[in-house]
Write a structure and sequence with these properties.
This protein has about 750 residues and is an alpha+beta fold. The protein is built from 19 helices and 41 strands. A hairpin with a 2-residue loop joins strand 4 (about 75-85) and strand 5.
Length: about 750
């Protein structure tokens, strides 16, 4: 009886497979020691639905059942709730009862339950009334002896550790989110492509004439004396040239002096242009469609001085170098005709000193905040949009010490009204009557990527109001926050409550990818440490458990972005970013062997990415084999005419696989295998419904990657498919494999990957 019950619970409880990963923190007690103190017999695994059901985050008003296995001599067990609804729990302990076993069975991770006891308790709905993070551990008693069972030292939420006292426990977490939380289906089912317009394609050469006029085209920079000034922009007449890198030091005594000078350009940041524009994106929509892309994420397109446009000058105007409002309207219309959505980039935490709102240089015909600062008698409607610090240099708060990025006062009612408050449903495309957020949605944009969304001048209240405003204009719009941390516990803040963003740029996913597929590596932003397959699996399971399901399936699973080193550079085996000088970074090239290894690993990683839960995202040019260390070297122009065509064809195949198999978009997830350098997982749909309960055909996919030399693997199916089931590999070289004795036996090449599919359970 118990054996059958355990198997079913571990497989299908609460809407999905949850298979126990094999990784165990070093501090964890053995599951069934031959001898030892009674506490050695305690066992819990938060990644398995036998012990924690549901496995996932809990919606408000839900409940959670927890089970703990201990010795038969155990006399008492309680669940200790540390926080609930954001405050200390009103009922801090929940009694667990001993489950009566008619005959000893088995339990996951423990095996035979002879001389063991099972204790069960339920966290009630009263503890899940407010979105946030709930913390818990277990207190157990054996005839007067007390011990505590809590999260392991490695910080994963699976198997834990026994603590002799209640001090310094590492608690287990439960993310609680609003029951009403939902995310757009088009986002969850899509493939995303990030574009920096200036670096993608020059579709309107007439616009490049703008950059050839140094008298009218200038950008704000900070001089060596610390003063801000406007300087002429720099234009790359050679599309394939290296981006200007002010990090490079030109040393007259260096044998590379002339090249250093050329790489450094005039030594100013973000002032070099290539001439890409919105028409260029329109011209390449067919190419993007061939990749299976359905979501275009554009870095800022609004009028600004810098090439990246994060220094906004006018939120209601397309940058003249990118085109006109008419060009934007053509883009969204033609993209829509191809089934594509356009997501815009909103940088609202700071504004350029050379903007219509601050106007330090008098570029605009407005009375900017700077004019009122110089002369208090000149009233500016924008003065209170900024945080002033009289007597300081500069006399206002800026973004991370960059004075030409003036930090905004997000507490200003006027600024809030401007960004998201104003809305006229009868005249939604009128910039005078509508906020920035609503105006661009009314013109055809499908959502916002929110820059620095977790920065200190934002709050839950700001993004809650922003979300309400956006959904007012478009109930199907998407909001993606930039957050490099765990968004459910970002320095104590839970951003994924269902009341703010839909999802995030999933940098934790990228970090895990680097740690497993590359190993210990510093990419200039994050120090990644090598992971075993078991640790990699536990990291992913923790993510799947922490993130609310609506958010997890909409996560922007990126391998790189405008702010990171190119993923291919990392996978090729490039030295740590901090191990090379800026000149060495700018001129680094892989050996032929490194290049071959990098491409093979990128194909392996991309297969993993396209099969995993969430939205696969391509940073422009990654699919073409672009390399480069971090900003500005990762922002070169797309290599039209000399891209890696074989790699592009591979990504096109992945796009077809993803788009043709709903199971990869909204199916459940099960970890099947994690050992050494090999990892396997399954995606599945059962009983005619997907992970969201929506109608879908039953299907199973198995993704296996081998991050080492050629080998034969035996993958246990965990009861997922019956013997005799045949699966087809949709990656080269194809072929089929059959489930035998509850296993799949596969031969994988070095850095190989397979994506196996069957349409029947």
């Amino acid at each position: 009886m118990w054996k059958t019950f355990v198997t079913i619970m571990a497989a299908f409880c609460c809407g999905g497979w949850v298979v126990q990963p094999s990784y165990r923190p070093a501090s964890s007690a053995s599951a069934a020691p031959a001898s030892g103190p009674w506490s050695d017999y305690l066992y819990f695994n938060g990644f398995n639905t036998f012990y924690r059901s549901p496995f996932n985050a809990v919606p408000t008003g839900g409940t959670l059942r927890l089970r703990l296995v201990g010795p038969a001599s155990l006399t008492n067990a309680t669940i200790q709730i540390q926080t609930a609804n954001g405050t200390p729990a009103p009922v801090p302990t929940i009694a667990m009862h001993r489950v009566v076993q008619q005959r000893p069975g088995t339990a996951p991770g423990v095996g035979n339950l002879r001389n063991r006891s099972i204790w069960e308790g339920q966290v009630p709905a009263r503890d899940f009334q407010t979105p946030g993070v709930l913390e818990y551990d277990f207190r157990v008693v054996d005839h007067g002896d007390v011990a505590y069972y809590a999260n392991g030292e490695a910080g994963y939420g699976g198997m834990g550790s026994v603590y002799p006292n209640p001090f310094a426990l590492v608690y287990y977490d439960i993310t609680v989110y609003a029951r009403s939380f939902s995310t757009p289906a088009w986002l969850r089912h899509g493939i995303m492509y990030e574009i920096m317009p200036d670096r993608f394609y020059d579709g309107d050469p007439a616009l490049t004439a703008i950059y050839d006029n140094p008298e009218t085209q200038r950008a704000v920079v900070v001089s060596s004396s610390g003063q801000q000034e406007l300087v002429p922009i720099q234009f790359h007449k050679n599309w394939d040239s290296t981006p200007c890198d002010p990090n490079v030091v030109a040393n007259p005594l260096s044998p590379h002096y002339r090249q250093e000078l050329a790489l450094r350009c005039n030594g100013t940041w973000n002032t070099d242009y290539y001439g890409g524009d919105l028409q260029g994106i329109i011209d390449k929509l067919g190419y993007l469609k061939s990749l299976g892309v359905s979501i275009l994420y554009l870095t800022p397109i609004f009028e600004a001085d810098w090439n990246n446009k994060y220094d906004t000058g006018n939120y209601f105007k397309v940058d003249p170098g990118f085109g006109t409002l008419g060009t934007f309207l053509q883009l969204v219309q033609k993209a829509k005709a191809l089934g594509m959505h356009v997501i815009l980039d909103g940088a609202f935490e700071d504004i350029s000193s050379d903007s219509a709102y601050f106007n330090m240089f008098g570029t605009y015909k407005t009375v900017g905040a700077w004019q009122e600062h110089l002369n208090p008698k000149m009233h500016s409607p924008y003065y209170h949009w900024f945080l002033w610090e009289p007597g300081q240099n500069p006399p206002y708060q800026d973004w991370f010490g960059i004075p030409d990025m003036v930090l905004t006062n997000t507490q200003s009612n006027s600024y809030q009204h401007f960004i998201y408050g104003a809305f006229d449903p009868h005249d939604p495309t009128n910039p005078v009557k509508n906020s920035v957020a609503d105006y661009w949605l009314s013109l055809g944009a499908s959502g916002w990527r929110l820059d620095s969304a977790d920065s200190s001048n934002y709050s839950i209240a700001w993004w809650t109001a922003f979300r309400k405003a956006v959904l007012r204009a478009d109930p199907n719009a998407a909001l993606i926050g930039e957050d490099w941390n765990n968004p459910t516990d970002d320095n104590g803040v839970d951003w994924l409550t269902g009341t703010t963003w839909d999802s995030t740029m999933n940098y934790p996913f990228r970090n895990a990818i680097i740690s497993f597929f590359r190993g210990t590596y510093n990419d200039g932003n994050v120090q990644n440490y090598g992971m075993t397959a078991q640790q990699f699996g536990s990291t992913l399971m923790q993510m799947l458990q922490d993130y609310p399901q609506p958010a997890m399936y909409a996560e922007m699973n990126l391998l790189g972005s405008q702010d990171t080193e190119r993923i291919l550079t990392i996978l090729e085996g490039a030295p740590d970013a901090n191990a090379l000088t800026p000149y060495q970074q700018a001129t680094w090239k892989p050996t032929p062997a490194q290049a071959r290894m990098g491409i093979a690993k990128l194909e392996e990683v991309a297969a993993f990415q396209y099969g995993f839960v969430g939205v696969p995202d391509i940073y422009y040019g990654d699919e073409a084999g672009m390399i480069g260390y971090t900003d500005p070297l990762n922002r070169a122009a797309y290599p039209w005419g000399h891209a890696d065509e074989a790699l592009i064809h591979y990504f096109q195949r992945l796009g077809r696989i993803r788009n043709n198999n709903v199971v990869l978009q909204s199916g459940g997830y099960a970890q099947l295998y994690a050992r050494g350098q090999d990892f396997a997982y399954a995606r599945y749909i059962r009983n005619g419904v997907d992970a969201f309960g929506h109608p879908a055909h039953d299907a199973t996919a198995v993704v296996v990657v081998n991050n080492g030399p050629p080998r034969t693997l035996t993958i246990p199916m965990q009861g997922l498919l019956p013997n005799g089931t045949r699966l087809t590999n949709e990656l080269p070289p194809g072929g089929t494999v059959t489930v035998q004795d509850g296993r799949l036996r596969l031969r994988l090449s070095q850095y190989g990957a397979v994506m196996l599919f069957t349409t029947h359970a």
